[in-house]
Amino acid sequence: MSFLGKLFGGKKEEKGPTTHEAIQKLRETEELLLKKQEFLERKIEGEIQTARKNGTKNKRAAIAALKRKKRYEKQLTQIDGTLTQIEAQREALEGANTNAQVLNTMKEAANAMKLAHKDM
C-alpha cells in the first residue's frame, strides 16, 4: 500500500459473513416474508368481504376494494418469487457447507492414513 493510502486509510478488506451467519439471516428473512404473506392474505380476504358487502349498494366502494385486493395480490406474487429465490439460495449454501465439511473430514482421514502408513 502506498504512503497516501496508509495515510488516508485506503481500502480495507471486509470479510463477508460465514455460511452459518448467511444461512441464519436467510432463515430470518424467510420468516419475515412468510409473516408478510399471511398478513396480505388476511387483507385480501377483508377486501373480498368489503366488495361483497358493498356489491349491490355501493359499487364505487366495491370497485375500490377489488382494486386494493388486486394490488395486494400483486405484492403477494412478488413475495412468492422472493421466497423461492431465498429458499434456493439457502439450500445452495447449506449444500456448499455440507460439502466443505465432508471435504475437511476426508482430508483429515487421508492425513490419518498417511500417519498410519508412515509408522509401518
From TrEMBL:
GO terms for cellular component: cytoplasmic side of plasma membrane; ESCRT III complex; multivesicular body. Residues 10-20 have a biased composition (Basic and acidic residues). Residues 1-20 are annotated as: Disordered. Gene3D superfamilies: ESAT-6-like. Keywords: Endosome. InterPro entries: Snf7_fam. It is found in: Endosome. One of its GO terms (biological process) is late endosome to vacuole transport via multivesicular body sorting pathway. Belongs to the SNF7 family. This is Charged multivesicular body protein 4b. It comes from Papilio xuthus.
